[in-house]
TrEMBL record, chain A:
Residues 72-429 form the Solute-binding protein family domain. GO terms for molecular function: peptide transmembrane transporter activity. GO terms for cellular component: ATP-binding cassette (ABC) transporter complex; outer membrane-bounded periplasmic space. Coiled coil: none annotated. Belongs to the bacterial solute-binding protein 5 family. GO terms for biological process: peptide transport. This is ABC transporter substrate-binding protein. It holds the Pfam family SBP_bac_5. PANTHER family: ABC TRANSPORTER SUBSTRATE-BINDING PROTEIN, PERIPLASMIC BINDING COMPONENT OF ABC TRANSPORTER. It is found in: Periplasm. It comes from the Bacteria. The lineage of its organism: Bacteria, Pseudomonadati, Pseudomonadota, Alphaproteobacteria, Acetobacterales. InterPro entries: Peptide/Ni-bd, SBP_5, SBP_5_dom.
UniProtKB/TrEMBL annotation, chain B:
Keywords: Cell membrane, Membrane, Transmembrane, Transmembrane helix, Transport. It is found in: Cell membrane. The chain crosses the membrane at residues 12-33, 107-128, 140-165, 177-194, 239-266, 286-307. The keyword Glycoprotein does not apply. This is ABC transporter permease. It is a multi-pass membrane protein. It comes from the Bacteria. One of its GO terms (molecular function) is dipeptide transmembrane transporter activity.
Length: 512, 314
């Protein structure tokens, strides 16, 4: 037979196309490119939808930034002042600031962007702003009542400032910002490539180019970090982090961030209206066990609502939340709950049974819910778990059908948690906060906090607010949050921003 | 020629039916999904923890989600006649514009995958068919069964860990250069090649065993010449026809593989649109995939028509 040799040859030719990739054409692009991989897609150009990408890649700037502790720092505004009556803020702009099309950053352009950010659905719309005015070299914002968290709202990505040429009517046509990097190529929803802007008025960034890639699957991001194909990989799963720690190519940065996993309870329901019932529920939870076994981070076990990362709100002196089944049973017995034949507590013939809604946008939540189901069962409480869409929690809050919900609350949606707390624990509660519970005292404390600038008084008020929430438990804290980021050892001087406002690439350099 | 027109005309009618069915079915299915659409759309716009009832209400008003559903569906079909697929509810972009970019990526990925699978599957299968019952025939059977049984997701992760992380040959994910397309295309191609190698093997084995092939050998042609002149074209018809069927696997694989490799194609867009209840995007992507399917089948018909003189005569 002579056919076989011929076919073997054509086969070899056919197969040759693929593995002809030597190590010299390896996966690394130009050495000067900093690659970021996260799970957040680029959802169009509108600042309200994808401003976080352009703010974090330092393409666009906000009026103010925030340091790691959430205190305001200059960005497009070089300084700011507040009037005597505490109603008018004046932000003086950096005179040398230029947009990437070369035009100066004018007060008119800034005022127009802020007006646009106030539109319904936007975060800035929640601030009590009466008027925004452009003055020579400055922008003046008048609030209808004293409102100190305004500086934090102005650091939020939805308030990034874009050049007038970026807009076509109300729609954003191109992202023309004023940051150290300008857009080189944009391929929504996946990829953004940026390069140094010639019009940047600050120190020239050491890193010349950067790529942002949205990879939705955790496996993909982990593989890129592991293979040295990303200088920064964000949103890593706990099990991945363990493996990456052993990789000599990367450094894992784990830090607590102002976020808490918590159970929202319907305090209007007869099950949870008494604070002793809520306390018993809290005492039945094994937070330490869940943090070690499921989250693989023992320090993330919550002892109070606010994590130590929120230094101004965390009160070290509060008695830590802990597990004590006997005390939980005693409290419940005091409320008339007696164990039935099946071990489930009963009162007037009705079982202590409710449904907890949770969602899988955060992949660890369903697992935590199942663990808590078993823990509560030991205290005689029957909890059913419903894994639903995240919207079912605010929807259930509104129509009153929610009994309990396990969720993650981000206290740094704006860098000052007060903005979030006002939404969550004001009168009537909030979609992602208290339900059927209100405290006139807490309301007064939060309102006063929005008005006063006196540091000692503010500290006392914050401590009081934390203490009220700790004692009344309108929501039950479960665990704090650790942000894990893999950083390549090719990079030096890169600090991870716990508030996730910026990747801080412009401040980093290549390691020698 | 009449045969060709009949074949292509049939496909054109099919395309119109696909548009009607896919558009209506997608619309109804998304409407029937449980939960409040306005909330879900608002969540995909602003992030789930920024959404409250007020934002959802604003979305409902803006998009007119409380209009009766026949009115909304009718508006979509009216737009389709003008080749206007509407505006994405999540990003605010025109659907046709977004599809234009995504379709390009999906076509590049699919074409590369098909090319890889053609380079791998039929030659390996033909080799097995020439020696039906030999050791290579048995090995290929086991290999193709295994590859066909592994889901694209698992295969993709394995290739990623092997070729990108261990060997550092290829980027694990992304888009931009030619290297990024290799891993996702290879993931799809291995599944496709597993199928086409079997068909090629059977077709070649049948040809080799046929009387006309025996006659060609008997008149003095050597194996290579006999196969080139009398085997190749005969074996190609079932292989090409099967490729048309395989496109189903390709379309289904694209959805998973694009998400895994962060490839901004149509499959990826479809997944996001379904999660975000973005009806115009779901309709647009599904419609494009459906029409793509019809177009590729028409190409298959055409190829078979060119390959097989018996059809032309008919």
């Amino acid at each position: 037979m002579t056919a076989a040799p011929l076919h073997r040859r054509s086969l070899l030719l056919a197969a040759a196309g693929l593995p002809a990739l030597g190590r010299d054409v390896a996966a690394q692009p130009a050495a000067d490119t900093f690659r970021v991989v996260t799970s957040n897609e680029i959802n169009g150009l509108d600042p309200g939808r994808s401003g976080h990408v352009f703010a974090r890649m330092q393409v666009a700037e906000t009026l103010l930034g925030a340091d790691d502790g959430g205190r305001p720092v200059p960005q497009l505004a070089r300084e700011w002042s507040l009037s005597e009556d505490r109603l008018t803020w004046r932000f003086a702009l950096r005179e040398t600031a230029r947009f990437h099309d070369g035009s100066p950053v004018t007060a008119e352009a800034v005022a127009a962007c802020l007006e646009r950010a106030r539109a319904p659905g936007g975060l800035l719309g929640n601030a009590p702003i009466a008027a925004i005015a452009a003055e020579p070299g400055a922008v003046a914002i008048r609030t209808s009542r004293p409102f100190t968290p305004l500086t934090a709202f102005l650091a939020h990505y939805s308030t990034i400032i874009l050049a007038p040429a970026a807009f076509e009517g109300q729609a954003v046509r191109a992202v023309i910002g004023s940051g150290p990097y300008r857009v080189a190529e944009l391929l929504p929803p996946q990829r953004l490539e940026v390069e140094r802007s010639a019009h940047w008025d600050g120190p020239t960034p050491a890193i010349g180019r950067a790529i942002y890639l949205a990879a939705g699957r955790g496996e993909t991001r982990a593989a890129m970090a592991e293979g040295g194909q990303a200088e920064l990989a964000a949103q890593l799963a706990p099990e991945t982090v363990q493996r990456l720690r052993r990789n000599p190519r990367v450094l894992i940065d784990s830090r607590p961030i102002p976020r808490t996993r918590l159970i929202k309870l319907n305090c209007a329901s007869p099950l949870f209206s008494d604070v002793r019932a809520r306390r018993a529920l809290s005492l039945a939870l094994d937070r330490q066990g869940m943090a070690s076994a499921l989250l693989r981070s023992p320090v993330s076990s919550a002892t109070q609502l606010f994590p130590p990362a929120m230094a101004e709100w965390h009160v070290p002196g509060l008695p830590p939340l802990r597990r004590d089944l006997r005390e939980a049973r005693r409290l419940l017995a005091g409320l008339g709950w007696q164990p039935g034949a099946d071990g489930i507590l009963r009162r007037e013939g009705r079982p202590f049974s409710f449904t907890l809604r949770t969602f899988s946008d955060r992949p660890e939540l369903p697992g935590l819910a199942t663990a808590m189901q078993a823990q509560l069962r030991e205290a005689g409480i029957e909890m059913k778990v419903a894994v639903v869409n995240s919207r079912e929690i605010p929807a259930g809050h509104r129509d009153g059908t929610l009994e309990a919900g396990l969720m993650v609350r981000n206290f740094s949606l704006v860098p000052d948690p007060l903005g979030t707390l006002l939404q969550d624990y004001g009168p009537g509660g909030g979609d992602w906060g208290a339900m059927g519970w209100s405290s006139p005292e807490l309301g007064g404390v939060l309102e006063r906090l929005g008005e006063t600038a006196e540091p000692a008084e503010r500290a006392a008020l914050r401590a009081r607010a934390s203490t009220i929430l700790h004692e009344a438990l309108p929501v039950i804290p479960v665990s704090w949050f650790e942000l894990s980021t893999a950083i390549s050892r090719r990079v030096a001087g890169l600090g991870v921003d716990p508030l996730e406002l910026s990747f801080r690439i412009a401040g980093a350099r290549w390691a020698d | 020629m009449g045969g060709l027109i009949r074949v292509l005309g049939g496909r054109a009618v099919q395309a119109v039916l696909v548009a009607l069915l896919v558009g209506t079915a997608c619309f109804l299915m998304v409407r029937l999904l449980p939960g409040d659409m306005a909330y879900r759309i608002a969540a995909s716009r602003y992030g789930y923890d920024l959404v409250d009832g007020a934002a959802a209400e604003a979305v409902r008003q803006e998009l007119g989600l409380d209009r009766p559903w026949p009115v909304q569906l009718g508006a979509w079909f009216a737009g389709l006649l003008r080749l206007d697929l509407g505006v994405s509810l999540a990003s605010g972009e025109a659907v046709t514009e977004a599809l234009g970019i995504q379709l390009g990526h999906t076509l590049l990925l699919s074409a590369t995958a098909l090319l890889f699978s053609l380079l791998l599957g039929p030659p390996l299968g033909a080799l097995a068919g020439l020696r039906a019952g030999g050791w290579w025939d048995g090995a290929l059977l086991a290999l193709s069964a295994a590859l066909r049984a592994i889901p694209a997701f698992v295969l993709g992760v394995a290739l990623m860990l092997w070729l990108a992380v261990e060997w550092d040959w290829l980027p694990a994910a992304g888009v931009g250069g030619w290297r990024e397309v290799v891993l996702p295309a290879l993931t799809l191609a291995l599944g496709l090649a597993a199928g086409s190698s079997r068909v090629a093997r059977d077709a070649v084995a049948a040809v080799v065993a046929s009387p006309f092939f025996g006659f060609a050998r008997m008149k003095g042609l050597d194996d290579a010449a006999a196969f080139r002149r009398h085997g190749l074209r005969n074996a190609a018809v079932p292989v090409v026809a099967y490729l048309g069927l395989q496109l189903v696997i390709l379309v289904e694989g694209v959805v998973v593989v694009e998400s895994l490799f962060a490839w901004p194609g149509i499959g990826h867009a479809l997944v996001h649109a379904v999660l975000g209840r973005d009806i115009p995007m779901v309709q647009g992507t599904a419609l494009t995939m459906g029409l793509l399917f019809v177009a590729l089948n028409a190409c298959t018909d055409l190829a078979c028509w060119l390959l097989d003189p018996r059809r032309r005569a008919a």
